[in-house]
Q: What sequence folds into this?
């Protein structure tokens, strides 16, 4: 925490779930019957495994995750919102065959690198103060 400045906002994590499966992805019934995936090697992978979901190894490629869902290899996957990066045709198929709901809202912060922190220990405090000033002077969201 000594290296963190924030919170600086939040990052939404979504369930991309096949419309064929009518269960709530946060329910025990879904957890017991569905196969899920996410980005290979991600923190989300560890979380799904720890939470007891039936897990199938995913991919670092978002298009592969979409293909796995549309092809019926998995019932759902967890990821950030990347729909704006999909080809138009792929986005349309995803929209037609999947429901997308928020799974988690994760707070975000700036992290000062260890080497920088050690070389200028006063910087983090100054950055926190300046960032706080920016937040207090920012226009409220509408």
A:
């Amino acid at each position: 925490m000594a290296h963190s400045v924030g919170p600086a906002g939040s990052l939404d994590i979504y369930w991309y779930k096949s419309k064929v499966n009518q269960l709530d992805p946060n329910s025990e019934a879904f957890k017991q019957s569905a196969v899920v995936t996410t980005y290979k090697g991600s923190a989300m992978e560890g979380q799904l495994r720890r939470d007891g979901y039936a897990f199938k190894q995913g991919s670092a490629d978002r298009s592969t995750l979409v293909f796995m869902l549309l092809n019926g290899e998995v019932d759902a996957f967890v990821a950030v919102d990347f729909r704006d990066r999909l080809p138009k045709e792929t986005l349309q198929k995803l929209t037609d065959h999947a429901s997308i709901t928020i799974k988690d809202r994760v707070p975000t912060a700036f992290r000062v690198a260890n080497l920088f922190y050690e070389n200028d220990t006063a910087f983090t405090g100054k950055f926190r103060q300046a960032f706080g000033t920016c937040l207090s002077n920012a226009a409220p969201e509408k």
Observations:
- The mean pLDDT is 93.
- The chain has two domains: 10-107, 112-137.
